[in-house]
Amino acid sequence: MIRIVRVMLRRRRGTALLVLALSVIASAAAAAVPLYTGAAARAVTAAQVADAAPQELSIARTVLLTPGGFPGRPAPPPAEKLAPQLPYQPGFTTVGGLLVGGQLGATETSLGTSVWLAYRSGVCAHVRMVSGRCVAGAGEAIVPQSAGLRPGTDTGFVAGTLSQGGFRADGDPIRLTVVGVYAIGDLTGAYGAGRSFTGVPQPDEEPEQEVPAVFATLETVAATPFGTAFQTTDLIADGVDFTDDAGLRALAAEEETLAEENGYDVSTALPDLLDRIAAQRAGLDRSVQVAAVPLLLLTMVVLYLAVSSSTVRRRTESGLAGLRGVPGFTRWWLSAAETLLPALAAAPIGLAAGWLGVRVLGAWTLPGGDGPELTWGVVATVAAAIVTVAALAGIAVAQAGRGPIAAQLRGTPARAHTVLIGLAEVCAVLAAVAAGYQITAEDQPGGLALLAPLLTAVAAGLVARRLTGPLAERLGRWGLRRGRVNRAMAAFVIARRPTHSRLLALLVVLFGTGGFAVAATTAGAWARAERARLDVGAAEVWSLPTTTAGDLRDAVRDADPSGRYAMAAAMLPDKRFRVLAVDAERFCGIGYWSADVALPQEQACGSLRATGSGPLPMIATQSPPDRVAAGSDSVSVTEVAEVAVLPRLGTAGGLVDLAGLPAATPVRQAQVWLAEDTPELIRSGLRVQGLTPVATMTAERAAERLDRSGPALALRFYLVACLAAVVLGVTGVLVVGAAEHDEIGRVMRALRIQGMRSRSVPRQVAGGYAVLVAVAALIGTLVAALAWRTARAVVPMVADGGWAPATPLLPVRPGLLAAALLGQVVILLLTSLVVATVLRRAVEGETR
Question: Facing residues of 567 across strands?
């Protein structure tokens, strides 16, 4: 038996190699899905962590310390009480600190500068020394640049509190020697844990609460007489496995519980970061599923065509073996061995090919990623794919060899069970309808709805397969009546050869899913660009130090008198309602506006203009309060329009005119918005006016950040999967050509003997394939348009829960979609021409 199988494999190398190649594709696709999903999930997690705020990468404990003694002369607390706690958590670095609020450089007649006298472990490694050195001993301090002091200066510090009644000292002042001047450095990063003295924006703080830090040693801070101090312990995530969602959430909850039990405050935004990572990974998994299933289905269909057509060509061999008394199972094994053995041999090859393919793909789509990781789960997935391939091959052999021995000797398979086939077609159509209904009925469709693009293409392919035979038959008869033999023979080949109708269904699915993939990829890129524009607000935004509304507006207008390039803006410090103040006169030419908003931007600018002393006009996403905070005071507002989304604010907040604020209003989050074509002269003018940015953000950079999100990475995989599907389409044409080679060749040789010209052979064969490809392209394009109209919601464009632009009904880049479909048509037509040329040479060789 083994020797017979070896001889069969040797003599039928073509079929064995074809099955091997298809099995490799199936196992490689099966391996690529978990490999790419895992690598992309790690890349998404790393991108989210890199963009996270310091509060999201830390757990900050704050313990209030109040020493004994009398007011004004507090008794020094014991040193062990002041020393910060340093608990250990795997993956976290513990940073301890001690904060005492007071005045730096105060005299008997005037107040100094409000600062924190701070100790923070490891601070010397995380600040950038502008001049001098870092602290090393008692009585030494480093001051921020804003303090205006130089190294070697002696100054005083007195602990106390500043209130409306003035400054109240807690004890005697201490003397400090300034040994260095520092810039913020890494304090704004995770190391600073988002503490207010680091310069990280605190949206819930009033502008006057921004207090810098003067850093000293623990001995210096502990020796300061104080009435109130804060002991800080910050857990900084620097080696955390952020894929351990449950463990990190449990840690955050445990810290909250400990804080309640021990009477101290704890602050962390770690769960917010975990929520974003989970949303990104969910969007990634969802989109990869939409991409992977069509590829696997097409592979299985082509494999079934290859195995069944190969088995049908050898039905007489199986019949003769049956006449000689060979049992049925043995006959099945002899027929199936040449497909089952290559399928099993494809498992390690496909696994390696999938790993290598994901590695190459990751170098393009996952810059900076750590590459695919081979796990037992991936091996299990490949094993499941190979088992499916083997089962499909076995079923195909059994179906092709079914029936009595006398029927197998005829060489022509019995007609399929048309009732069962018709029932399967009806079920496919009903499944597509059900998926479409689920999309319209649910806000976040899942399950069957994720397969809606594929089901729509499959249903259309099956319907086209059903209608192709009768239509081709009529076209053939019409051609014969008018003497157009080539066209008639091409039509008869399509009508009377079942493999051609199956190929048509396969190509319809190929064109339909490929068109949907291109539309989804281009729409995703457009949606991310629109989201980035609205997130930033303008082409470029400068963040500035604290100033006043009048100074900010006047400085920007002086730097850009034309009003074409620069605009002043500021976030107001209202805790209940986010408010962005913009220069309404310049907003239309510089700020971005969403196309989803019914209110035109020009009308919005006119509505925002502040006139007189009445309430400020506001354009809001929901009903605003009657008054909003503006510095230490508040201003009254009135809603003039309600829209769905606003630049910089998203779906929550309101716009007002910066010119309507009192000129002396302090603005902590001051901004300058710049147009796309802002010349360098304007930028220099802004700096001359004292508007030096502390941070900048561009819409292009924001779009690049969104391009590292889960849906973006998944859509790139979707596009690559559809390119692989084109290869399967080419393979399908070759499989059908090989399956029909002997039968059509026999017919063509008979016609050649009867006088048919040799050039008619490729015309008839290639013409039949050309008609199939053209019809499939037309139907597939319509299917792609229908699937896009009904099922575009299954492909998430963004996954962070924020605003996403409404996906247009028509493709964003129809030219690119048309080019992609045309490219597929050309490739398939060239493949058809190759099949026809091979058949012509075979016919010419026999007739000679």
Answer: 673
Rounded CA-CA distance 844/848 in Å is: 6
First-residue to last-residue Cα distance in the chain: 40
Element housing 722 (H / E): helix 710-753
HEC string for 89-127: CCCEEEEEEEEEEEEECCCCCCCCEEEEEEEECCHHHCC
Average pLDDT over residues 298-303: 79
Helix (H, G, I), strand (E, B) or coil at 796: coil
Listed residue (633, 692, 555, 691) closest to 208, CA to CA: 633
Shortest CA distance to 317 belongs to which of 4, 542, 750? 4
Overall pTM > 0.85: no
| Residues sharing a CB contact under 8 Å with residue 247, sequence separation 6 or more, in sequence order | none
pLDDT at 69: 44
- Closest by CA to 270, choosing from 532, 98, 89, is 89
Lowest mean pLDDT among 268-282, 757-771, 818-832: 757-771
Question: What pLDDT is recorded for position 749?
Answer: 65
For 110-121, the pLDDT digits (tens) are 678 889 999 999
Half-sphere exposure of 275 (CA within 13 A, CB side): 8
Spatial contact of 641 and 660, defined as CB atoms under 8 Å apart? no
Q: What is the pLDDT of residue 84?
A: 76
According to DSSP, residue 646 is labeled B
Residue 171 burial by CB count (10 A; 0-12/13-18/19+): exposed, middle or buried?
buried
pLDDT of residue 207: 38
- Asked whether 350 and 26 are in contact (CB, 8 A), the reply is yes
Tell me which residue of 35, 155, 174 sits closest to 105, measured CA to CA.
155
Tell me which DSSP letter residue 54 carries: G
Q: Compute the mean pLDDT over every residue in the chain, rounded to the nearest whole number.
A: 82
C-alpha 243/C-alpha 262 separation (Å) is: 30
Contacts with 284 (C-beta within 8 Å, 6 or more apart), sequence order? 37, 40, 41, 44, 710, 711, 713, 714, 799
CA distance 450 to 78: 64
